[in-house]
Automatic annotation (TrEMBL):
A single BP term in Gene Ontology: asexual sporulation
Residues forming coiled coils: none
Family annotation (InterPro entries): SASP_thioredoxin-like
Chain segments carrying region Disordered: 1-78
Organism field: Fictibacillus arsenicus
Biased composition (Basic and acidic residues): 1-18, 45-57, 66-78
Name of the molecule in the record: Small acid-soluble spore protein Tlp
Domain of life: Bacteria
Record field: compositional bias (Polar residues): 20-44
Length: 78
């Protein structure tokens, strides 16, 4: 029987920050595609909706980053 993995949170902040950066880049690339390609109104709307979901994800990532930073600070004091 395998032991459960220890909760390794040592790189969570950096990983989440990278996820925010990648998601922002995806938003930018999607916007450039929408602006520079001959897309239908429906395709442009799909891009807009995906970007809205991406913005919501960024907000959640940023909340997690704050939680992880607080966890780190709390554990450094111990």
């Amino acid at each position: 029987m395998q032991k459960p993995n220890k909760d390794d949170r040592s790189n969570n902040v950096e990983r989440l920050e990278q996820m925010v950066e990648n998601t922002q880049q995806n938003i930018q690339e999607a916007n450039e595609t929408a602006d520079n390609m001959n897309l239908t109104a429906s395709q442009k709307e799909q891009i807009k909706e995906k970007n809205q979901h991406r913005e919501e994800s960024i907000e959640q990532f940023q909340n997690e980053i704050q939680e992880e930073k607080a966890y780190r600070e709390g554990n450094e004091l111990q």
